[in-house]
Amino acid sequence: MNAYAANEESWVRYGQIQLDRGYMPPVPDVIRWGFWDGVGPGAEVLGPVRGKRVLAVGSGPGHQAVHLARRCGALVDAVELSPTQHQRAVEHFGNESGVQFVNADVVEHLHTAIPYNAAYGICTLGCADPRYVLPALANGLCAGAPLVFSALHTNLHGHGPSSVITPREELIRIAGQEPIPVQMWVLTPHLWEDVLGEYGFRVESVEVLRAPDADNPVAVQLVRSRRAPDA
């Protein structure tokens, strides 16, 4: 089984566990790019999105997309590959104004979608080969549109990012459940900048967001990029 198929299976399993638990995270007051409240910026890193079409890459249960619609006035297409994650979103937010939930592979979705004014992913772009998803995002965004995403930087064991574009196994942890393996592309900031540039994006900044507890080594990168006008 390749990494893409394995990840789809893992996220289907994750979504089913959360459906069975009846768990839905609340719509946040501020978008959380990492794993901790109060760490890092909010939706302002996307720029003004009121009335603009925004793509959520791997929208999960949809609560972050709903935040953008409610608080920022964005028109969000929340695209999620896992049918169980999509089911969670639709069951809770199916009638939410300003959000359209789409159960699809984001690359396939972008083949037919009207270009977006902005796109974002919260710890989701690192779950797909950047050489697969970035060309579609470049074609699916308007010239100059922002692409902002977070990605794992250092894991719970202190294992830092790689300088080669290859996936490695990480674990999704749910209290009381066996960890779920997932393949992730955990890249150095320099490598993210290189691969984004290869596909027509200009990186504006990379910020490392760290756990508030000093003894927790987990950190994520917040990458702010923009589709080059001439891409």
UniProtKB/TrEMBL annotation:
Keywords: Methyltransferase, Transferase. GO terms for molecular function: methyltransferase activity. It comes from the Bacteria. Signal peptide: none annotated. SUPFAM superfamilies: S-adenosyl-L-methionine-dependent methyltransferases. Residues 54-112 form the Methyltransferase domain. GO terms for biological process: methylation. The keyword Cytoplasm does not apply. This is Class I SAM-dependent methyltransferase. It comes from Streptomyces spongiicola. The lineage of its organism: Bacteria, Bacillati, Actinomycetota, Actinomycetes, Kitasatosporales.
